[in-house]
Amino acid sequence: MRTNFKVLALLCAVSAALIMIAPSAAMAAPWEDALQTVVNYMTGSTAHLLAILAVAGVGIGMLAGHMSVRSMLSVIFGIAVIFGAAEIVGIFSR
Question: Which site in 23, 35, 41, 45 is 20 to 30 Å from 6, CA atoms measured?
Fold first, then answer.
């Protein structure tokens, strides 16, 4: 009977400690806002406009004979990876 009381007291103490720690654990890390801003720039409208300019530049370079198909494919693959990064990470984090 005495052992059950000790186990119950320990459980209550651990529960109380976890309840006190939970609000501080829920707070975001100080660098999360800065990183989220970078992600928003890389996947937002600014990145879309830059991707359009990159594809247009590659097209003009190919028309002028200054770029190869391999360079074009690497630019398009890079754009696809940047815009699909969130989905790629989501697939691996499941």
Answer: 23
Tokens of 22: 């939970």
Q: Would you state the structure tokens that stand for residue 78, as one six-digit string?
A: 């890079």
**Per-domain residue ranges for the chain?**
29-92
At 23-78, the pLDDT tens digits run 555 566 777 888 888 888 888 888 889 899 999 999 999 999 888 889 889 988 98
Residue type, 35: L
Residue 83: what are its φ and ψ, rounded to 5°?
A: -75, -25
The values of phi and psi at residue 27, to 5°, are -70, 145
- Cα 5 to its chain centre, rounded Å, is 47
Separation of first and last alpha carbons in the chain: 44
